[in-house]
Amino acid sequence: MRAATERRPALVLLGGDSGVGKSRLVTELENRLAGEGVLVLWGEAVEQDDGELPYAPLTSALRPLVRAGDPVLDELSRGSRAQLAALLPGLDIADGAARHDPSAQLRLFESLLELLDLLSQRQPVVLVLEDMHWADRSTRTFVAFLARSIRQERVLLILTYRTDELHRRHPLRPLLSELERLEHVRRIDLRPFTREELTEVLSDILDADPEEALIERLYARSEGNALYTEELLAAGLDGRGTAPQSLRDAFMLRVERLSAEARQAARTIAVARRLDEPAIEDVTGIERAPLQDALREAVAEQVLVADDDGRLMLRHALLREALYDDLLPGERGDLHLRLAHVLEERMSGGEDGEAELAAAVALHYAAGGDQAAAMRASVHAALAARAVHAYGEAAELAERALELWPRVPGAQRTIPLDHVDLLRLAASAHSMAGDRSRAEVLLDTALDEVDQDADPERYAGLLARLARLQWALNRGLQGVETAKRALAMLPPGQSAERAGLVGWLARTQFLRGRFRDAIRDGEAALTAALEAGDKHAESEVLNTLGMAKIALGQVEDGIRCLRRAIELARADGDLDDLGSAYSNLADMLNIAGRTREALEVALEGDALIPRRASRMYDWITLTVAQLSFEAGEWSITRERLGSPPMPLDRVSMFRLLVEAEVALGEGTDELAGRRLDDAEPLVEASAEPQWIGWFGALRGELQRRRYELLEARATVEHALGRLEVCTDDVIRIARASAVGARVEADVAERARALRERADERDAIARLRIHCSRLAAAAQEGGPVERAWQATGKAELARARGRSDPNLWRQAARRWEEIERPFETAVMHWREAEAAAEAGDRPSAARAAGAALETAERRGSRWLADEVQALTQRARLRIEGETDEPREDADRDGAEDPFGLTPRERQVLALIAEGATNRQIGAALFMAEKTASVHVSRILGKLGVHSRTQAAAVAHRLHLT
Predict the structure, then answer these.
(1) In this model, does residue 891 exceed pLDDT 70?
(2) Most buried residue, 294, 326, 554, 945, by most Cβ within 10 Å?
(3) 392 and 368 belong to one structural domain
């Protein structure tokens, strides 16, 4: 609790067997915090059997805030209030129809996070979610989101669960494993009492020292279980009977003491889980006065307790289970049906909590055996769950209705949907919940049931949904073809379906690098959105148009589109659209070579996106980090990357690639390799050039530095092979081709040193192809592409053995014009190298000094090492340096003609002595893998194939 109070949010996983004392422990914590100004929000999951009660623990935890009219609710943004209104009835707000898209549930989660953030600004918050072994899928998803999203909120999250319920395939197990890996999570497994602890407990309860015989009897019977111990005491020390043989017997003994009316009420509540007095009266038929006496009796006997909503429930879940199991099958079914009727009447009266009520009605009808009513109620519950973005539960409920359909005569007349509509509902819910493969199967089934000639519009609507699924399943070309087929089937004229489909096609065209097609489709979609007055659709289409226009050089027009999208998003309070528009504008300005302006736009957006909008906040934060790196503001980059890692999705892929780029810039190659390894499966699953080209360039550069030149060539070729279809997306092709040019120049140099003329000619031929791509990209693109082209020209001269300082200087000037200091410094390093080879030592020293100054200011150890190695072997004197040798200079003053760094010289000395990689690592305090990388670099620089050859060169030239 102290950590949470100090803005270090924490999560406690409190597990233990049934009755071991988890709830009591949390209750004691609440009692201790009562006078310390801490807000405790308490919710319990409900045993579901075959039911799906979405967000049950969350709604019970947060409902008291709404009931009390907590003023913090008025501080929520309009968008968040609209999101929470469906989940927490009482938050009345006039808003449009709910948007159901893959990020809809995430928007709800971000609204819940905003609420917790606002509450924690006022006072520390403890959110207790009990019995998580019964939690619904959506609640588990929210817990995973919250655990990874809380950063500085004064929040302590406590999850309790029964360890004896967690069978091998229990759905809570993966969540617990995921949470345990987080730094701020602590797991506590509550154990039964030891004999000594039980003695202490008995002393407290009895207010006297217990007899040894009593201690032995209770410890042997209860095995230290706290709840069983209490029940044994209650049953065995009051003179009413012998001690029960099991906890179930102890519970039933307590119930059997009650009057007939009290037992009847308790049994009803055991089936319903919790009920208010009017509902108990309606189900049992007991009149109000005797019912109140019966309920008062059950409460006094500690069988029933009241929750914060005034509903009655059994004192402990184990007591409910015992009482439920004691019912005869006929009694149980009859009670389920009576409860279903009572709750359904309440639901038709517009009572709050529709999703929870609807799911409960469906559960009771199913348990009572009324299949027709169960199917009807399941559909209603699925729609109610979808309304609160509980898509996993909506999918399960819709699937249950589909299963019941063939068993119900006249099913079509029972529900307001036909079979195709029901299939589409289930598919949509599965898609939103992430199970896209199942959604595709359901949509294919629905398409088989629709006659495309008789009802082409309905068939086209199903095809449009299928197209989006195919895109999400990384079958982009198939998705686009399906969408075009759907578009051709739609009747002429404007419609919401046509506008949405054309807008989606425009965005996919952009993501595939088809910028001209994106503008064509985007203009049509914009016209439809304006005619429909759909501001959200207008904002989305303007995003697409703005990006495509900037990518094709229509920069000012594109900026106007994106600025208009920003205006619409701000007016609507839509943080998703606002963050997207700012990120897109910044990214495209960077692509257009307006680096500083891009960073300023990203920072402008960053100031407007609150931290509670976690997903978009993370995205804009990473955009700032990336652009700060490009602009040479590496301190900002490091600061923005200091937050915890994110889940494995597009945000995670973005972060991994930014971290890999920074690591390469700094020279921490091992870290770069790990980040690229983590990103690789995500990139391979993506069809978007922005990730494919970026990853290929980074991986190729890392392998080039490690002298894994053939592997680097294969990496670049693989990336370019995936990018070639994206003829408009020249920036990705340019960067990957430039890295490919560097790789081929290294291959050519090495082949020339080893007199392998065929390999040298092959490398130069490959490099010319890269230069052709760079020339085409420069013709289509802007200043960034022209800078990459200038780099490629200089690399071609280096590959031919005639590295030209003028070409490197021109490339440096290109990078300097677009304010990219790191690439400028790399060009100056190569310029210095070429000038030194040409014998122009003053020019070499000036260029080396400029490169070194940038490398040291930004913290690029890799570039600094390369420049210093050059100055040592070329004996360059950089202005401002003394004549004293550097601390890491060659001690005997011998010239190193191969550009070995001081560390590589140490490794070479051990190679000459016959040391293995493991021995080198032990001697120089480095990992064996790191030693292996150094050895590979040394072999490459010396132009040899084996350690023996390297040792011979070292001895012959006195390099050790």
Answers:
(1) no
(2) 294
(3) yes
